[in-house]
Amino acid sequence: MPASPKESVRNPRVHDQRELGGSISPIEKPSLRGRFAPSPSGPLHFGSLVAAVGSYLVARYYGAEWQVRIEDIDPPREVEGATDTILRQLEAFGLHWDGPIIYQSENIPRFKDILEWLKAEGLLYACDCTRKKVNQLSDNGRYPNICQHKKLSFEGEVAWKLRHGDGDYSFFDQIQGNCTFDESLYREDFTVKRKDGLMAYQLAVVIDDIDAGIDHVVRGIDLLDSTPRQLRLYEVLEKPAPLWFHLPLAINNDGNKLSKQNHAPAIEAKNASVLLHQAIAFLGQKPPVSLRSEPPEIIIDWAIEHFQLETIPQQQQILYSES
Ligand code: GLU
């Protein structure tokens, strides 16, 4: 029986939050595990620090493990040395992970096996459309399932699309509340293997989260509309979906998301305490000013002890100014 995405919809806010683990089936509380999954496309900046700190605090607050996974399956976007820089930054900011670092690229054979399985189940088809063609035929940028009946060969330069489901892929987010999307998102066949032969983010992230026993996903709200697609993958793979926590995004004065692409400055170890204090405050917590001069581990310990899920802003974007 495919797991209904709705089965994962649970609201710890209406329970004693410490009971969270008890409400997730079939994973028992002691194996609760969260993760931070950066792509090695550059050093961490304030926006990615917020995601790292947010996922760390949620995991630790619930007594869960916190895994770090390097999402290194997109070589054209990778920056040499970025993985090492990211790991050193996490250490300097007192964000200590459990277990080995997971390198997504090592799981490519596993992704390929699953793609073959999905293909054998008749859930995939090949598509040779260009982005230009998709944009011409669609007014919202969504793929209008053009190739679904064409029976194109899976060989060569074609994307592999997963057939959409019939379900309702809305979900309850632990921070943002009920999240519903346009029907066109639920009914879009989406890419699981890219035209250039690389594995698509949606596929890799879901398989890795399942394999690692990740039962709660804390990440930036820019990935909110990836979640219905990921729920479709949990459905076809017949696995229970994790709990979702989407954090507000840090934006700059121009209204753009802080990102590696728009050259957000890398966070520096020498400013670790101040930046951590800012990240924790950004997440709606109220760290005392005196904490700013404490070492990172002390600040993190305070934040875990005083963590309040309810005060994380239910907002899409928050302006971040460095001062
Ligand atoms: N690797 C993704 C990123 O750096 C995050 C994936 C996720 O948290 O689901 O944006």
TrEMBL record:
Motif ('HIGH' region): 38-48
Alphabetized PANTHER family for the sequence: GLUTAMATE--TRNA LIGASE (PTHR43311), GLUTAMYL-Q TRNA(ASP) SYNTHETASE (PTHR43311:SF1)
Cytoplasm recorded as keyword: no
Family in the record: Belongs to the class-I aminoacyl-tRNA synthetase family. GluQ subfamily.
Residues engaged in binding Zn(2+): C127, C129, Y143, C147
Parts forming coiled coils: none
Record-given protein name: Glutamyl-Q tRNA(Asp) synthetase
Binding site for L-glutamate: R35, F36, A37, P38, S39, E71, Y201, R219
